[in-house]
Amino acid sequence: YDDRDGWIWFDGKLVPWREANIHVLTHGLHYASSVFEGQRAYGGTIFALARHSERLVNSARILGFDLPWSVAEIDAACIAVMQANDLTDCYLRPVAWRGSEQLGVAAQATKPHLAIAAWPWGAYFGEDALAKGLRLDIAPWRRPAPHTAPVHAKASGLYMIATMSKHHAEARGFNDALMLDWRGQVAEATGANAFFIRDNVIHTPTPDCFLDGITRQTVIEIARKRGIAVQERAIWPEELETFEQFFLTGSAAEIAPVGSAGPWTFEVGALTRQIQKDYSDLVNGRVSNG
Ligand code: PMP
């Protein structure tokens, strides 16, 4: 990802892609004092831009550092980097971290940094998996309890077990992994939230120990506007065999139907396709969310 043409917004300036470098003694690298975002632009408009910028600022605050850029400034920087790279349909990756001014667990003297990159990114799981439904493994790692990690921040450190679970799944031929939480309840995939359908009612785990995704919130609004009941509640894995449909949601993943998770199988059904179309219409500006 580092050796290519293009521009990256870095601490207030657009710099050539290959020159957007940091020092090896960066605190964020050693101690995971780093948070990030991920959002998509459709036809030149970044979907839910301010909500992503707000979450970035909040994630940093949860980890104990304040960004010297406002939400409006981060929004403007995202638009600037998209335009500088001549992109209209792309993924954007803001990342904020503590710098290399101090090294050790204590980091009060470090400076906060922010970089934003943008690049074209097609279907997160590939077109084939989207058509047929994803095959999910059950992750060997569980999402941590809220008092053992900053579970509501989009903090890089929380992705250590996500990458390990994703690699474990891909090595065994799966597209991704479904993660349980510390209690053993269904939580989410390694980078997307989970929704289930039974008898035209939508069920989704309560986000009390994982990210309450912006796509997740959007899908709940879309469904309720259609008059479809949505239940947020605890879901145990034993209940998976009773669900007819299952899909994942995320800014990168969008709406991705699931065909199987561990021993349980699901159909790629009409309601999943409807939600997928409604989401696509919304992000592409074909309907308003008012
Ligand atoms: N959970 C995790 C672990 C994620 O990485 C993401 C992607 N940011 C999500 C859920 C979905 O969040 P969003 O819809 O805000 O992209």
From TrEMBL:
Example GO biological process term?
A: isoleucine biosynthetic process
Keywords, sorted A to Z: Amino-acid biosynthesis, Aminotransferase, Branched-chain amino acid biosynthesis, Pyridoxal phosphate, Transferase
Q: Name one Pfam family in it.
A: Aminotran_4
Sample GO molecular function, one term: L-isoleucine-2-oxoglutarate transaminase activity
* Highest taxon, organism lineage: Bacteria
State the pathway, as annotated in the record. Amino-acid biosynthesis; L-isoleucine biosynthesis; L-isoleucine from 2-oxobutanoate: step 4/4; Amino-acid biosynthesis; L-valine biosynthesis; L-valine from pyruvate: step 4/4; Amino-acid biosynthesis; L-leucine biosynthesis; L-leucine from 3-methyl-2-oxobutanoate: step 4/4
Tell me which EC number(s) this protein carries.
Answer: 2.6.1.42
Required co-factors: pyridoxal 5'-phosphate
Q: Which reaction does it catalyse?
A: L-isoleucine + 2-oxoglutarate = (S)-3-methyl-2-oxopentanoate + L-glutamate; L-leucine + 2-oxoglutarate = 4-methyl-2-oxopentanoate + L-glutamate; L-valine + 2-oxoglutarate = 3-methyl-2-oxobutanoate + L-glutamate
Enzyme class, first EC level, given as a word:
transferase
Its job: Acts on leucine, isoleucine and valine.
What family, per the record?
Belongs to the class-IV pyridoxal-phosphate-dependent aminotransferase family.
* Descriptive protein name: Branched-chain-amino-acid aminotransferase
Organism from which the protein derives: Sphingomonas sanxanigenens DSM 19645 = NX02
Taxonomy-wise, where does this protein's organism fall, top ranks first? Bacteria, Pseudomonadati, Pseudomonadota, Alphaproteobacteria, Sphingomonadales
